[in-house]
């Protein structure tokens, strides 16, 4: 619930500040915003290649629009693979060739829109089914091949959160930079009355406040949200991998699916009897 979180963070900070009889207008310091946010953007551009910069910018909406994977999406993967493995066991591996080569035209893929919409998962399934159909790879080598795929996906999924965490770590320091610059300005006002000096010092300290708020209130949680979404994708790929590895080692489809059910995160895992009924329906 990121949008609600954004409101709660700033709302509680402002309400608490005003309960201390703080002057709200004093918190609005555009010069501090420019120093901190501008320097943070510059450091982000220094640290990351342009491809990662573009990917990070395109990932920001996912924080607010992305959804946690639900139980049904894991169930869809199990049911889809059960159908494929049943066909392979009944008609031979070559019967899967058309589905693997053209997943967008496959009637079985089309039965599960949640998989078709998840292009990472769809490509993972199609690519590994192609290898599976070829039939010239040992189960251990097949498992190693999929491990390479999932490890590469996991590494790629951490790049954007890591980049945002780096910015988050820099924001408190940049807030201190803005505060020091404000104090330097204040030193030139030493001949002014105390109330003017006080407001100037208060404005300078807003830099430290803004840096800390942006870091711990927003940037670090945003990085964590993207990291959680990446972990969801890793989990569903590993479930698919578990099915294929188990079948490649000679287990029947039902047992291969049971192995994969154990790999589903506990909050999304269907019960044994529940999945058994779903598999019976799929078989019919």
List descriptors:
mainly alpha; 284 residues
Structural class: mainly alpha
Provide the helix percentage.
Answer: over 70%
The geometry reads as elongated
User: Biggest sheet, open or closed, and with what strands and sense?
Assistant: none
Please provide the count of β strands.
0
Beta-strand percentage?
Answer: under 5%
The tally of domains stands at 1
Taken in chain order, the helices and strands follow as: HHHHHHHHHHHH
Give the end-to-end Cα distance, rounded to a whole number of Å: 39 Å
Number of helices in the DSSP assignment: 12
Q: Overall pLDDT, averaged?
A: 88
Unreliable residue stretches:
none
For the CA atoms, what is the radius of gyration? Answer: 27 Å
What does this entry show, briefly?
This protein is mainly alpha-helical and 284 residues long.
């Amino acid at each position: 619930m990121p949008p609600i979180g954004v409101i709660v963070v700033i709302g509680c900070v402002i309400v608490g500040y005003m309960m201390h009889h703080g002057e709200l207008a004093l918190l609005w310091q555009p010069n501090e915003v420019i120093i901190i946010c501008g320097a943070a953007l510059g450091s982000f551009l220094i640290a990351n290649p342009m491809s990662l910069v573009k990917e990070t910018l395109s990932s920001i909406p996912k924080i607010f629009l992305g959804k946690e994977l639900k139980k049904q999406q894991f169930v869809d993967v199990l049911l889809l693979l059960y159908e494929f493995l049943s066909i392979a066991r009944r008609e031979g591996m070559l019967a899967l060739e058309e589905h693997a080569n053209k997943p967008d035209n496959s009637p079985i893929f089309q039965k599960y829109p949640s998989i078709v919409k998840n292009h990472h998962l769809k490509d993972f399934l199609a690519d590994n089914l192609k290898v599976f159909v070829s039939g010239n790879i040992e189960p251990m080598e097949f498992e190693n091949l999929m491990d390479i795929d999932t490890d590469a996906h996991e590494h790629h999924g951490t790049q954007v959160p890591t980049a945002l965490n780096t910015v988050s770590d820099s924001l408190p320091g940049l807030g201190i930079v803005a505060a020091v610059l404000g104090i330097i300005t204040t030193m030139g006002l030493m001949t002014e009355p105390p109330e003017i000096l006080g407001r100037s010092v208060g404005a300078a300290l807003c830099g430290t406040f803004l840096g800390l708020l942006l870091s711990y209130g927003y940037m670090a949680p945003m990085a964590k949200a993207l990291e959680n979404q990446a972990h969801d994708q890793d989990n569903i790929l590993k479930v698919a991998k578990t099915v294929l590895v188990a079948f490649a080692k000679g287990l029947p489809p039902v047992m291969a699916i049971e192995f994969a059910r154990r790999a589903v995160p506990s909050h999304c895992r269907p019960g044994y009897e529940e999945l058994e009924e779903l598999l019976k329906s799929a078989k019919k």
